[in-house]
């Protein structure tokens, strides 16, 4: 069987990166990022999520997810690379003209730590490299950072409510402040 093509946004390639440490192993966190019912309980602005299986009848490369965001409109997430419990990469396509959505390729990576926690890295690279799009995106970064911090707290609360066993926390803290990966330059 031929290995699927790898699609991965590194820190150097990202226009935007958010990272946070979570007190759960990657396999447990993974489910909260890919299962529609679990995602609806913690992701901000989500009103509905519908997964569409790939040609093999399962989630993975070639599958998609249709996300409804209420007044913010809808988005299509097409999975390009799917490495369970390690990372997934998707192409996000806005299905509305809401200015807060940007066409991008995103990698969400789950990195286990020595203490049993997991660093989750979310990286996004704009598909439209035009100056106006990058300026609009840059102006939205503070909003994305606040939404990320709120969603991290809601994710932790949801996982505690579900009885997910926590790993030993690191002494470095649980969360890092959201920051752009690098300036979006022209």
Structure description:
Helix content is 25%, strand content 28%. The chain is of the alpha+beta class and 186 residues long. It has one domain: Alpha-D-Glucose-1,6-Bisphosphate, Chain A, domain 4 (2-Layer Sandwich). The chain is globular. The chain starts with 15 loop residues before the first strand and ends in a 25-residue tail after the last helix.
Strand order of the largest sheet: 1-7-6-5-4-3-2
In the CATH scheme, what's the topology name? Alpha-D-Glucose-1,6-Bisphosphate, Chain A, domain 4
N-end to C-end Cα span: 42 Å
Determine and state the CATH class.
Alpha Beta
> How many beta-strand elements?
7
Count structural domains: 1
Individual helix count = 3
Rg of Cα set: 16 Å
**Fraction of residues in H or I helices:** 25-40%
What general outline do the C-alpha atoms trace? globular
Q: Main beta sheet: strand number and arrangement?
A: 7 strands, antiparallel
**Average pLDDT reading:** 88
Name the poorly predicted regions. 170-180, 182-186
Which tags fit this structure?
Alpha-D-Glucose-1,6-Bisphosphate, Chain A, domain 4, disordered C terminus, 186 residues, seven-stranded antiparallel β-sheet, alpha+beta
In a few lines, what is going on in this structure?
25% of the residues lie in helices and 28% in strands. With 186 residues, the chain is of the alpha+beta class.
